[in-house]
Amino acid sequence: MEVMHSLRQIDLFRDLTEAEFDHLQDIMHVLHVSRGECIFVEGQKRTAIYFVERGLVKISRVDIEGREHIVNLLGVQSLFPHVGFFDSGPYPGTAEAVVDCTLFAMSIAMFEELLLQHPGMMQKMLRVLGNMIIQLQSKLQQLAVFGARERVLTLILHFIEEHGRVELDGVHVHLPVTHAEIANMVALSRESVSRIWKDLRREGIVKGHKEEWIFDLQWYKSLLHSQ
């Protein structure tokens, strides 16, 4: 019953009938992944699609010089991988649990069959993929034209939108990410990110620590309106 409730929270599945949900439960299994454990590795044969029920998953790729580049951080209800449907290509990146995670997993073949049987679900899937393309295009543009502080602020806004919750004392973001990982995501040095973060603390914009950041609510609203 708990699995059914969690699946219903995923937008992709909300329009399914009771019978279709029963079938979905039959073909999907629950996977528990420990912090630091890889779910799949870049280049590995693609066999399954995953949905985050609890936790945080890091998606990364390795360049030709062996350096890791963090592509995204995925929270509750996120789907991954986002590419490779209806072809036999390998996983395009590596997925690693940032914290202990609970995932729903389904074979790629069964998921593709489900999409073909439900045009409405296919349309939602196309919207999800379209939004991902827009986000990646926006990120490339930001890296090309934004200064260091603007890159960090834009990433913070993304973190808040994806993982934040508004409370009386500010916007809370539970995201165990280091300055080095933030630097990786915005193509800056760790020292630059640490310096910008120190400035944000001094300005009263952020407090707390990496396990639970708290951002000033008025600052967040003004940043949101400036985008």
TrEMBL record:
The keyword Methyltransferase does not apply. Keywords: Activator, DNA-binding, Transcription, Transcription regulation. Pfam families: cNMP_binding, HTH_Crp_2. SMART domains: cNMP, HTH_CRP. GO terms for cellular component: cytosol. One of its GO terms (molecular function) is DNA binding. Residues 146-218 form the HTH crp-type domain. InterPro entries: cNMP-bd_dom (IPR000595), cNMP-bd_dom_sf (IPR018490), Env_Response_Regulators (IPR050397), HTH_CRP (IPR012318), RmlC-like_jellyroll (IPR014710), WH-like_DNA-bd_sf (IPR036388), WH_DNA-bd_sf (IPR036390). Residues 12-132 form the Cyclic nucleotide-binding domain. PANTHER family: CRP FAMILY TRANSCRIPTIONAL REGULATORY PROTEIN (PTHR24567), REGULATORY PROTEIN YEIL (PTHR24567:SF26). This is Crp/Fnr family transcriptional regulator. It comes from Sulfoacidibacillus thermotolerans.
